[in-house]
Structures
1.
Amino acid sequence: MIIEPKIRGFICTTAHPDGCAEAVREQIEYVKGQPKTDGAKKALILGASTGYGLASRIAAAYSCGAATLGVIFDKPASGSRTATAGWYNTAAFERFAAADGLYAKTLNGDAFSKEMKEKTVEVIKQDLGQVDLVVYSLASPRRTLADGATVSSVLKTIGEPYTNKTIDLKTNTVSEITVPPASEQEVQDTVTVMGGEDWEDWITALRKAGVLASGAVTVAYSYIGPEVTHSIYLNGSIGMAKKHLFDTSLKLGRLYPDLKSYVSVNKALVTQSSAAIPIVPLYISILYQVMKEKGLHEGCIEQMTRLFHDRLYAPNILLDAEGRIRVDDYEMQPDVQEAVNALWEKVSTLTLEDCCDIDGYWDDFYRMFGFHFQTVDYTKDVNPDVPIPSMI
Ligand code: NAD
């Protein structure tokens, strides 16, 4: 079939297999051109199909030469529906890895579930013996608990409503949005979904099964960002979950003293998850404008390559005063933030083109789903049915 983008709200309901393969190929090529990292040998990546998790898998494989086991939650093509972008990304990653002689297997299912943890342990026992890196990169709007109940996360403030500018991505217009405060229950649920509980469950399950190597590294991802996003992010419901995630990294370090457990604070980037947060996409498109102008812009793969090479596996790991890894350092540079603030004041529908890298935002958005690649012929008939070679 001919596959075209179909945008609904802040997602695209179609994905292009050749474009997704091209996105993965570009990321692999980038890492191949960077210095190698003496790091992970056998990595488990949770949430490995898109965004930071996919880039972590690529960095582990191509910077460290690691065998990678990915856990994803994606859908294959069915009838007239294409597969999800994460499915095509994973299929492509596995093909490239096989061609380059790298072990790569993938489990598809709900990473929050006990069954998925058990299955993963079995595969590690069978194929790898142990893993020495666990990346926790899940971003999900909901989580099904062991008793079958499903809880949802919300992107709301805490205490007071917060009003600021936002962008309507459908119409490319800037307007004001008021984000309401979350109830106590909603905050608690957001912590349950996006906090560290499931990360701890994974580490405990791997540890109990004896498949986590002594001296292993585990890392989960967080965000801090500037003042304009604090009410909705850092001090909002998602921020409470991220606080729990960080507390969990400390707890894991106490529970398992031979485990190196970190939270890495990453840069704001267009991913399927960040597109859903009010205010943040406008901030991201201004940030892109400023960081590209200053030659400081990075995507997921540049961030994760730097995380692996210059932070996680550097001889002396650089942490901030709280004990977190920071690869949001360029984003948070004072000159970058001053320039962003000045543009934030100025931005309106009329000045959007001048203040924001709106084309860059949209380009990244389409590329997440395999569109907008010069090297792909989108008029060509393609088979949407693409197998993931190792699918378990
Ligand atoms: P993303 O949506 O691209 O990736 C999330 C991944 O989790 C996907 O591969 C998805 O399939 C997987 N996933 C979701 N639910 C799952 C489940 N139940 N079982 C298995 N897999 C599941 O988002 P992202 O932006 O790459 O987010 C990854 C992490 O990075 C999150 O913790 C996020 O908060 C953090 N982060 C993101 C940004 C940003 O700007 N995008 C900045 C800093 C930190």
2.
Amino acid sequence: MAILITGGAGYIGSHTAAQLLAQGEEIVILDNFSNSKPEVLDAIRTLTGRDFPFYQADLLDEGQLEQVFQENAIHTVIHFAGLKAVGESVAKPLLYYHNNLTGTLNLCRAMERHGCFSLVFSSSATVYYLGCNTAPFREDFPLGSTNPYGMTKVYIEQILTDLAASDSRWRIALMRYFNPIGAHPSGLLGEDPNGIPNNLLPYIAKVALGELPCLKVYGDDYDTPDGTGIRDYIHVCDLAQGHICALDYLKDNPGAHPINLGSGKGYSVLEVADAFERASGVKIPRVIAPRRDGDIARSYADASLAKEILHWEARRGIDEMCRDAWNYTLLHRQQN
Ligand code: NAD
Ligand code: WQD
């Protein structure tokens, strides 16, 4: 019996795969490499000393999915596969709705056909980005988003909630990640976006490398102590551990369960840039730029539910997150 990891070659999926293998679990990875590279699979094998079946397959291809379920006894799925660039989703909503929604529907249908009813889904704190919600965000807040990417998460959560209500065999965790950053301490796994990064940490890392001239701080006139946006950053290894705790929880808890995975603590853009300077010893020049569309002033979790029901909490602080991100950046640059 094995755990299927969709999107397991990606940033969060690869860390979770490595952690599951290290704990002795059997896994199968499925990925179409639309936003990842085959080398990541070798890194997981090197790190853990274990092998696993891999399928280069697309969730939009039902035949490929059927083959994965026929050839493996899958008891649980951790579903990371999806497109995630907010700006691109505004430009290409059909691509996002098709990939994320149809992919999830195909996956759930294949699970049902094969009697697999346990699912951990990657949702996002972006589902809270409504004018009426103020941080700390709690799981019972109303949901909505400012962009098509975020709406795919809102819709998928609704579909999975309906599914769980229709059949008590389903056990579904809706994991609402805040801002995952950092990398595996070995430097073998991490985040490696193509082109100019949209997200803060990969952008800062490229500035530290000298590949970009300076950090553009999107707005310094928010209602926050230093005027810049506050986010709840979480180390990707803590996030991976949260999935493993969710698998345990689902064993005894049917239904659909939204759960925040965040630290409960917020850092401003300037505080993150300062922490990265401390970790890297490299100065990060900054310029103030206009606010970015769709951004909000503050996003951080009420992390109490995960603590209560998963017995999980984020352990690693901002300095460790920046240190591991920088370590990965340096090692990865040397490999390329
Ligand atoms: P990622 O892009 O690194 O990983 C996603 C993986 O899914 C990639 O390897 C990609 O090739 C694969 N994929 C995409 N569509 C596919 C398809 N149709 N069939 C097969 N494989 C497909 O992203 P990540 O940062 O690891 O995020 C994982 C999940 O977590 C995503 O669903 C994302 O929306 C969600 N999430 C991410 C963040 C974040 O900041 N990284 C925050 C909240 C939620
Ligand atoms: C963080 C802060 C920016 C870049 C996004 C998605 C969200 C989730 C996580 C998937 C904000 C500021 C950023 C830069 C800056 N992903 N910033 N200069 O926007 O909180 O969340 O990733 O689900 O859906 O929206 O993360 O890293 O882009 O921004 O000043 O070059 O850094 O304005 O305050 P965000 P981020």
